[in-house]
Write a structure and sequence with these properties.
Blueprint: E1 2-3, E2 9-10, H1 22-94
Antiparallel strand pairs: 1-2
Amino acid sequence: MIESPTGATQIVAVAPPARPGIKEWVPAVSTLAVLAGMLLTGGSLIQTVKDTALKVEKLEKRADLRDDQLRDVQVKIGGMDAKLDILVGRQREQRP
């Protein structure tokens, strides 16, 4: 109730606050959509990095195994080469 300058009492109706419309929700919804997109992109990027690290680790193990196998083959070839040198040397000594 409000008193007017003439002294009469007037009743003023106050409207309830207006509900927010779609225009007021657009910034909040778009911000949430951008954040969700960033989280999804970041998650997939992290998974890609993990997959790549796992592949690199497997390749390094495979390369180490092949290096070990190559060393074994080189040792065997060295032994065979030494035996051949001995055999060839003996044959040369026996020939006049």
